Amino acid sequence: MRDTGDELREHEVRTALLGLLAEVGTVTATEAAARLGHSSGLCSFHLRQLARHGHIEEAPHHGGRARPWRLRRHHPDAGAPTEEQFGDLARGLEDESWQRWLAQRDQAPAEWRRDEAFSAIAYLTPEEMNRVADTVRRALAPYQAREQRPLARPDGARPVALITRLFPLLSQPDSGADGGDTPRTGT
Questions:
Q1: Which InterPro entries does this chain map to (predicted)?
Q2: Is 162 helix (H, G, I), strand (E, B) or coil?
């Protein structure tokens, strides 16, 4: 059985690589290592794994040893655009991490066995929804540098998944079509 710490690190590295590719377009293992603070060998391994699973592909390059990678390009008739597929992949990784947490939280140190999962429904306009998202991003901003700067992390700090999804709830077919009705929830 694999050490859950190894799985968590693999997930973190791959998620960071996908995020970096979404941000900069193309990256080599050496460039990713410099940006993410990992070894180029580790980044190279995970870039190849992401390619093996169809998430990224080699970008065109002009000879040399440099091997740039990019998010996988899809034919226009193949469905959703790359950005949407990246979002689907990120949500899948988030869901996988959540399920792993639920299955293994009893193995965590006692002070880490509690989570802060919550959900809420609020009636918002599109502009208000954007403001809520911006507020959450600003609240998290002071902690994000710690990913790249390990010395900035306080003693006892561990990676914590911070996931926020804001989306409009769609009305059920038998409720009104204006979206203003109270959404139905399943039990």
A1: WH-like_DNA-bd_sf (IPR036388), WH_DNA-bd_sf (IPR036390)
A2: coil
User: Which sign, positive or negative, has the C-alpha torsion 123, 126, 128, 130?
Assistant: positive
Predicted TM-score (pTM) of this structure: 0.48
Residues 74, 24 share a domain? yes
The total number of structural domains that make up the chain = 2
Residue type, 113: R
At 22, list the tokens.
């979404």
Displacement of CA 132 from its chain's centroid (Å): 19
Q: How far apart are CA 120 and CA 122, in angstroms?
A: 6
C-alpha span between 95 and 89 (Å, rounded): 10
At residue 126, the 3 state secondary structure works out as helix
182 CB-contact burial (10 Å; exposed 0-12 / middle 13-18 / buried 19+) = exposed
Q: Is the pLDDT of residue 177 over 90?
A: no
The b-or-e profile of 164-180 (16+ CB within 10 A means b, else e) is eeeeeeebeeeeeeeee
How many angstroms separate the CA atoms of 58 and 50, rounded? 11
Share of the chain above pLDDT 70, in %: 76
Q: What CA–CA distance (Å, rounded) separates 150 from 159? A: 11
How far apart are the C-alpha atoms of 72 and 51, rounded to whole Å? 8
